[in-house]
Amino acid sequence: MKQIHSFISLLVISTVFFSCVSTKQYKQAQDKYAQLDAAYLDVQGKYRALQGELNGAQNQNTDLTKQLAAQKAASDAKIADLNGQIDFLKQNNTTVLSQLKDLSVISGSQAESIKKSLENIGAKDLYIQDLQSSIAKKDSLNMALVMNLKGAIGNLDDKDINIKVDKGVVYIDISDKLLFKSGSYDVTDRAKVVLGKVAKVLNNQPEIEFLVEGHTDSIAFKNGILADNWDLSVKRATTVVRLLQEQYGIDPKRMSAAGRGQYLPVADNTTADGRAANRRTRIVILPQLDQFFKLLEKKK
What we know:
This protein has helices at 2-103, 108-153, 176-179, 189-203, 229-246, 272-278, 289-299; strands spanning 161-166, 169-175, 210-215, 255-259, 280-285. It is 68% helix and 10% strand. Helix 1 (2-103) runs antiparallel to helix 2 and helix 2 (108-153) packs antiparallel against helix 4.
């Protein structure tokens, strides 16, 4: 009887022991699964974010490529039209000169003078082609600059920052809410990050000069030393210029600051969205006119 009792006791103890071991292992497995599941979700989230950035960059690259192709096509069409006009003038003038010689209306020396004038037309043709080539080169450089700026800034919302080329000039529009607190000309920490990225690209192009413009909406403003929107726009422009000089090392000779107040809007000031679009700081990459003047001097 004692042996049977001992056997039963041993059996109960063994069952309890193995039951405890299984429960512990199961809990450990659950914890491990939870860790792996969290890690998987984290990696999945990072993958989606990277995929979004990649898609954004690809879309920007596609848009810029289309713009560049359109500009090239327009330039080629202009050059072809000019060449057609010049060929027509050459043929017409040659015909007229031959007719004049046959009729003995002009002397041989006069005919030679006219011939030289026609040769000058050919030289002017080469000059026009060189000028068109320089313009096309400038357009290509502008598109490259835009791509560098968009690549440096990253996938920001177009409502906060917009980079574009219009009539051969590069514009960088940065929204008021990204740069400044409401009614203030003190830059935000986020603004310093964005301006730092812009400064990096501009520092890599030391020949570029640019203008920083402050713009406001049409709502009357007055605060302390600031008398109106003119004052606010000027102070914001000079604040950005000073930051680019002192914190990011851009040569002050390359920069100008201007305040436009509410007088150059890009949207309707009667709506909230329109006013938000008008409150902006614009960086204008100035055309390098001295290069074209040098080109003109060489061809004289």
